[in-house]
Amino acid sequence: MRFDPSGLTQAFDRMQKAAKDKGKNLATEQGNFFLRTTRKLGYIVAPTKDDLFAVFRKLGGKIRRKKGVSPMKELMRRIRARGTFARGWKIDKVESSGTRIRIYIGNAIKYAGIVESKDRVASRSADIVGAGYKTKLQKLAKQVTSIF
C-alpha cells in the first residue's frame, strides 16, 4: 500500500485559503468595531452644552476668541464643534502582505493628540476590542480546521 499525499496537500491548501479569507474578514470587522468604539467613547468625553454654558458663566463671558467675534458667537461655535474629535476617527490605510493585515486608524483633528493624552480614548477602545478578539480568533481557528 502506498501513501498518496495529494489529498493531504489539498486539505492544507483549502485550510490556508479559508484562513486567509476569513482572517481578512475578521481583521476588517475588528478594525471597524474599534473605529465605532473609539467614536462612541469620543462622544462620551466631549463636553455637553451645560458644561460649556457653566464654564462660560464662570468666566463671565471672557473666553478666547478671534478678533471681532462676540463671546456668545464663540460659545455657539464651540457647541457646534463639540463632536469634532469623535467624528475625526477614520481608517487611514489597510496593508495586507502574506499573512499579515495592518489597519491604520487615525484622527486628523488638530487637537486630537491633546484630547487623546488626557482622556485615553483609543487606549480604552483597544482594551474593549482586545477582550473579545482572542475568543473570535479561537472560533476562527475551529472553523478553519473543521475543513480538515
- Rg computed from alpha carbons, rounded to a whole number of angstroms: 24 Å
Order of helices and strands: HHHHEEHH
Sheet bearing the most strands, described? 2 strands, antiparallel
Anisotropy-based shape: rod-shaped
Report the strand count: 2
Roughly what percent helix? 55-70%
Mean pLDDT figure? 80
**Count of helical regions:** 6
Poorly predicted runs are none
Strand order, largest beta sheet: 1-2
Terminal CA distance reads 23 Å
Strand content: 5-15%
Strand-pairing-aware structural class: mainly alpha
Number of domains: 2
Molecular structure report:
This protein is mainly α. The protein folds into 2 domains: 91 residues; 36 residues, no CATH class. The chain is built from 6 helices and 2 strands. It has a two-stranded antiparallel ribbon with strand order 1-2. Helix 1 runs antiparallel to helix 6. The longest helix has 40 residues. It is rod-shaped, with a radius of gyration of 24 Å.
In short:
The chain is mainly alpha-helical and 148 residues long.
Describe the secondary structure blueprint for this structure:
Elements lengths: L5 H40 L3 H10 L12 H10 L3 H4 L1 E9 L2 E8 L4 H8 L1 H25 L3
Antiparallel strand pairs: 1-2
Q: What key attributes describe this structure?
A:
single chain; 148 residues; mainly alpha; two-stranded antiparallel sheet; 6 helices; 2 strands; rod-shaped
